[in-house]
Amino acid sequence: MYTIDVVEQILEPKQLILANKDSIITHLVYDSRKVIDPVGSIFFALQAVRDGHRFIGDAYAKGVRNFVISETSWVGNKYSEANFFVVDNALGAMQKLAAHVRSKFTKPVIGITGSNGKTVVKEWLTELLGVDKKIYQSPKSYNSQLGVALALWDLNDDYDYAIIEAGISLPNEMDSQQVMIRPDIGVLTNIGQAHASGFSSKEEKAREKVKLFSASKVVISPGKYNIRDFLNPDVANFTFGYEMDDVVQLSSVQEHKELGQTWVTISFQQQQGIVYIPFTDRASIENALICVTTLLYLGYPIADITARIAKLKPLEMRLQLRKGKNNCSIIDDSYSNDLASLQIALDFLNQQQQHEKRTLILSEMEGMGAKVKEKLTKVLRGQSLYRLILVGEDLGFLEGAVQTDVLLYASTADLIAGLDALGFADESILVKGSRVFHLEDVSQLLAAKTHETVLEINLHAIEHNLKQYRSLLPPEVKLMAMVKAFSYGSGSFEVANLLQFNKVDYLTVAFADEGVELRQNGIELPIMVLSPDEQAFEAVVANRLEPEIYSFRILRAFVDFLKTKKVSSYPIHIKIDTGMHRLGFLPTELPEVIAVLSVVSEVRVASVFSHLVASGDSNQDAFTRQQIELLNAGADLLQAELKYPFMRHIANTSAIIRWPAAYLDMVRLGIGLYGMDLDQATLDLETVGQLKTTITQIKELEAGETIGYDRKGVLHRKSRIATVKIGYADGYNRRFGNGVGEMMINGQLVPTIGNICMDMCMLDVTDVSVFEEEEVLVFPDLGKAASAIGTIPYELLVGISSRVKRVYFYE
Ligand SMILES: *Cc1c(COP(=O)(O)O)cnc(C)c1O
Predict the structure, then answer these.
(1) What is the rounded distance in angstroms from the CA atom of residue 423 to the CA atom of residue 440?
(2) How many CA atoms lie within 13 A of 54 on its CB side?
(3) Is the CB of 479 within 6 Å of ligand 1?
(4) CA quadruple 320, 366, 122, 199: dihedral positive or negative?
């Protein structure tokens, strides 16, 4: 909690516009949609893809009264009750606050960085040390310039250790991370590829990373990286490895795949022992050894460490949304529990308005002191929950403290015993718990059974990709997101909800019934329908859907329909055919379109648009330019006659990359949103969909045997064949048979063998080490898969059948 005086001392603002000097700050906010406790919040107007100053009004309307800004022109005299701290850089100001919070913490801070594995190591260290210590950890992968500042905010002396993760994406970012975190103990997980993220060499990258440790006592690192020369002389380098000079010596690494373990003999000072690491993949072994070394540094004996390491489990670090029994939606986030990640999960619960009733199942938090309890109460008071189910006696203080009905269970076992009696139906259930409570067992019981082939959809990646494209657009250009065809196979209202939350301007569906489904699920954005037909007009109007009008027949029919309904000025979108020759008025027909439109009052043109046929193809640039000109000429013609303004738009994904001249009033973003970078642009897109299946059976067969229907898969050697649960009925095209398709198991590529069956197919796994029930990635490279069978990624994505369950992640 900070008073205005203290905040002023810390931020040293250029100017302070003071309305209420008695404000007390308890929450940092940078997104006006995520205000939980307005009175205690301070809003930072960050200069990101969208200028945070634009959202001051929104935050103020929600009751926020403290702001950190860099542009006073936004303030005027509209916000008379608010305090404004005027600084050069709002993010820098937030970082100053974070550094101050850190400076008040008197116990050791462990700072983790590295190219990979830092979140896993942070989570595992929290689990390993949490057995006997109170640990404060940064939530999720909050490791950016902003993430670290937010992550430090709740730190206080109730904890024994703080474990904070730091990442960098550009040279010179580590300095500010160091100032905020100032780790006493540094942990370097690895260094990674030199070419990644703007570094010219591996050495430059290593030098940048170790800046985090410039004032640390010690750095724990794999000996093989040899970072001694990069460290300040008074920072100890506590290494592990196979060399004589490594502090912790490793020997005899034995992999026991059948046990799922790797046995490593370690010696340190006078001690020797074996740790049984419960993993066999290289990354997990390396991460586990970093944890072992850290615990040795902290003085734990090897026997104790061995016992703790044996209990580690692979991390499901992602918040997951899936269908539950009795028409419930289950949001499972049971791997860690702290205030910040609870807020993220609650935001997600509210954003995905799956059901009116929202239930929270919550366990105790790690190291929950009085301050955390107070904040937790505030956070929960700000929620409109249907019921609150608490696990752990220590949460009893919430009874009566929040307006929701509270049910308290002493343990997860007690909750499970009483689960059926709770009668869950038609509700969204957020399951949020610390790992020790194993609330995933509860999620498992609430979830509907799934066919073991799933399409995992990463909603966070969609959000990320949206930001990438938005960063290319001038602020006045609107964005229409294409959610046709089940959002290119990625599900409908889950994606639409996310897009609505991220304030896109328009959505587009192919058919009216897709739009109706969005409306029924609470989507309020304007929705354009590409192929409305007469039978659907009733639904179109009843659901405020806006039809594309492409011909005189459809124009007259729609106007006649509106007349019978006595509706006027209904928004429509006039499609001009500038070269696709699919739907749309030809430019020569426009005078007649104008003649009709100028005498009817039933419709009002909301936009005039067209579709580019080859915006990604540089050989067709002359044609693309001509299409843009034709649209503009047509729209000019209409604008000259119609008395009101309307929008014009023509750009699809590739045109956003290649044709700024086509941005006009709005762009229509499709495939790029779903992570396919067909233009090989420099955008850093994230994969959205992962189609996964599992191995049902593995067989050893002799040379000469054949696999599958029609004996097409002939074995030329003794082979191992794996059967997996996906076939052409799931959308795995039959043309992928006989080695044309490749799947990936545990990082290894394997070809199909024999014909693809309806519900299954077979893989040749002779050359790799795989096991039954292992997970299989069906399209390790979607672009390559598409070209192998002579199609495009769009067709593979939308072809994934609806019987394949969609599971949503927000990571
Ligand atoms: C599908 C579609 C788009 C989006 O195209 P992408 O290449 O996926 O970006 C835009 N406009 C119309 C009319 C479409 O049908």
Answers:
(1) 19
(2) 8
(3) no
(4) positive
Q: Tokens at residue 620, please?
A: 């067709």
Is 27 buried (19+), middle (13-18) or exposed (0-12) by CB count in 10 A?
buried
Probe residue for ligand 1, chosen from 465, 573, 652 as the CB with the greatest number of ligand atoms within 8 Å: 652
**CA nearest to 263, candidates 239, 238, 225, 292:** 292
Cβ within 8 Å of residue 187, ≥6 positions away: 110, 111, 112, 113, 114, 121, 125, 219, 220, 221, 290, 294
C-alpha of residue 670 to centroid of ligand 1, in Å: 5
pLDDT at residue 194 is higher than 50? no
Q: What is the CA radius of gyration of the chain?
A: 29
Alpha-carbon distance of 513 to 499, in angstroms, equals 19
- Give yes or no for residue 221 CB within 6 A of ligand 1: no
State the closest ligand 1 atom to the C-alpha of 672, by its place in the atom list counted from 1.
9
The residue to which tokens 């095209």 are assigned: 733
Dihedral angle over CA of 791, 795, 801, 805, nearest 10: 110
Please give the Cα distance from 309 to 305 (Å, whole number). Answer: 6
Instruction: Work out whether the CA dihedral 125, 130, 135, 141 comes out positive or negative.
Output: positive
- Ligand 1 contact, 575 CB (< 6 A): no
User: Cα(first)–Cα(last) distance of the chain, in Å?
Assistant: 29
Q: What phi and psi, each to the nearest 5 degrees, are found at residue 477?
A: -80, 125
Q: What percent of the chain has pLDDT over 90?
A: 72
The reply to whether ligand 1 has any atom less than 6 angstroms from the CB of 653 is: yes
Q: Is the pTM of this model over 0.90?
A: no
Q: Are 804 and 725 in contact (CB under 8 A)?
A: no
Report the DSSP pairing between strands 603-609 and 570-575: parallel
Q: How far is Cα 113 from Cα 175, in angstroms, rounded to an integer?
A: 13
If you measure from the C-alpha of residue 493 to the centroid of ligand 1, how many angstroms do you get, rounded to a whole number? Answer: 19
Residue of 472, 668, 797 with the most ligand 1 atoms within 8 Å of its CB, for mutation: 668
Angle, CA 430 vertex, CA 425 and CA 434 arms, to 5°? 135
Q: In 3-state terms, what secondary structure has residue 437?
A: helix
| Cβ(778) – ligand 1 distance below 6 Å | no
Residue 505 DSSP symbol: S
Q: Which of 390, 437, 393 is nearest to 418 (CA)?
A: 390
- Nearest partner of 552 among 588, 510, 512, 584, judged by Cα: 584
Nearest atom, ligand 1, residue 653 CA: 9
What confidence tens digit (pLDDT) does each residue in 370-412 have? 888 998 999 999 898 999 999 998 999 998 888 888 999 999 9
Token reading at 656: 């956003």
Contacts of 800 (CB under 8 A, 6+ apart): 455, 489, 689, 691, 730, 731
Quick one: which of 475, 465, 669, 526 has its CA closest to 52? 475
| Token reading at 154 | 């709740």
Identify the three-state secondary structure at position 128: helix
DSSP SS3 for 231: coil
Q: Is beta strand 427-432 parallel, antiparallel or unpaired with respect to 329-333?
A: parallel
Count CB neighbours of 651 within 10 A: 27
CB atoms within 10 A of CB 114: 24
Question: 294 φ, ψ to 5°?
Answer: -65, -45
Residue appearing with tokens 């790029």 = 672
Q: Are 349 and 379 contacting, i.e. CB atoms less than 8 angstroms apart?
A: no
- pLDDT category at 116 given cuts 50, 70, 90 is confident
Strand partners, 320: 332, 809
Could you give phi then psi for residue 579, rounded to 5 degrees? 155, -15
Distance 509 CA to ligand 1 centre (A): 10
36-57 pLDDT per residue, tens: 889 999 999 998 878 899 999 9
- Distance from the alpha carbon of residue 604 to the mean position of ligand 1, in angstroms: 23
Determine the Cα–Cα distance for residues 26 and 6; give it in Å rounded to an integer. 13
- Closest C-alpha among 313, 427, 316 to residue 361: 427
> Annotated catalytic sites, by residue?
484, 709
